[in-house]
Amino acid sequence: MNSKMRKYLTVIALGLAGGSIYFLPYVKFVFYDAQIASMGISNTQSGLLMTMYTVTNMILYIPGGILADKISAKKALVISLAATSVLAYIYAFTMKSFAVSMMIWLALSLTTAFVFWSSLMKAVRIIGTEEEQGFMYGLYYACNGITNALTNAFALKFFNTAGGDLQTGFFRAVLAGGSIAIVAGILLMVLMKENKAGNSGAAADADEDKFKFSDVGKILRSPIVWIASFVIFCGDGIYTSVSYFNPYLTEVIGVAPADSSFISVIRNGLMLLAPVGGLLADKVFKSTCKWLTTSFLIVAALFASVLFIPASINPTAASVYTLIPSAVAMMLYGVVFSVMSEAGIPRMLTGTAIGIASIIGYVPDSLYSLIFGGFLDKFGGHGYTYIFIFLIVSCVIGASFAVIVRRLGLKAVEQSKE
Questions:
Q1: Residue 207 lies in a domain
Q2: Which residue of 53, 227, 237, 366 is 20 to 30 Å from 418, comparing CA positions?
Q3: Whether 93 and 20 share a structural domain
Q4: Is residue 208, in this structure, part of any structural domain at all?
Q5: From CA 292, how far away is CA 336, in angstroms rounded?
Q6: CA 315 to chain centre
């Protein structure tokens, strides 16, 4: 197998890893009623599992990132994937005990967030050269989206074999979906390279200094790391918020719920455009930050145009139009983590930087839904106007931060040459 083919197959395997390992912690989003019925728990208890998981993740991101820079990315990923599958098997046979389930969800933070996430993002970075970071991250996110959907579909197929028995179906779904992570681990064992420095990837810098804990302080004190983290914050906020087009179409435009759901499926499929964003960043703009600045401003303009869509517009036309900002958002989001390369973060410290960025970058996942929910509860359908204005401002801020990261990154490069 030639090195180029191996490189792309490894990214695909990483996409499978990222797309399958989160099946169990987020299983409620696919099998909500079945999980509650099988466990015999309330909606509040179901929410408690997710709250425990997300809060613990936030606590573990930075120490996990530091550890990811100290150990082999390959070993960290394989062990995390195997451990997650084991937890799925344990959960399948003990789900009647809520206390055991709580322990499992806490353990899932250790196997899916602690060292796994930073190692995963670091692995994507070190597999490719600095000139192809955008495409590598874009390809990863496209594969991630596809394999996530396939993992859920695979689990759903086993769920349906129970003939309507929720408990039996859910048991089979957990075993089936939980098994995919270990398959990803086996593929990474075969495909990922491991060099002497403890980095796994074809393009890892052999001459880079080894990680030192004293470097952690430098990363924590580096303004560019924090600014880059807010670029990711803005990118994630846009990515997660395009889902609000779904209720917007039904409540404001009058699209039938079934049609709106169909548009939502298409919107999720637009993640396949992530590699296109990567190619634009690498080949056309020759800069991730330039592409992010441009795409943030394009999305801002598209959100602004939504404010002027008349209520009398043809529902089909409105539905199709909402896919345009969604498409650009997917191409934007697919490359946000490659901003670390342009920020001048050394490869050996990528894990620590990703840990910091993840704490800040994923805040919109929980914060934006609270803010937007408040807009809709207070203003009804008019609340979408406030949502889009909020997102326009977020885009402008994201574009501004991307410009700053590029300038600081170029300045750091010039200083290193002196």
A1: no
A2: 227
A3: yes
A4: no
A5: 8
A6: 31
> 317-322: long-range contacts (C-beta < 8 A, 24 or more apart)?
318/249, 318/253, 318/255, 319/249, 319/253, 319/255, 319/259, 319/260, 319/263, 322/242, 322/245, 322/248, 322/249, 322/263, 322/267
Cβ neighbours for 329, distance < 8 A, ≥ 6 positions apart: 238, 239, 242, 299
Among 130, 164, 194, the domain-final residue is 194
Burial label for 138, CB within 10 Å (0-12, 13-18, 19+), is buried
Task: Give the SS3 label for residue 25.
Answer: coil
Say if residue 350 is in the same domain as residue 398: yes
For 277, the domain range is 216-417
Q: Of 192, 199, 226, nearest to 339 (Cα)?
A: 226
Q: What is the pLDDT of residues 310-348, one digit of tens each?
A: 878 999 999 999 999 999 999 999 999 999 888 888 888
Tell me how many domains the chain contains.
Answer: 2
Query: What is the residue type of 365?
Result: D
Whole-angstrom distance, CA of residue 340 vs CA of residue 325: 25
Same domain, 236 and 328: yes
Both 13 and 146 in a single domain? yes
| More confident: 292 or 70 | 292
pTM of the predicted model as reported, rounded to 2 decimal places: 0.83
Does one domain contain both 157 and 224?
A: no
Would you call 202 helix, strand, or coil by DSSP? coil
CATH number of the domain at 107, please: 1.20.1250.20
Strands (DSSP E) along 312-380, which ranges?
none
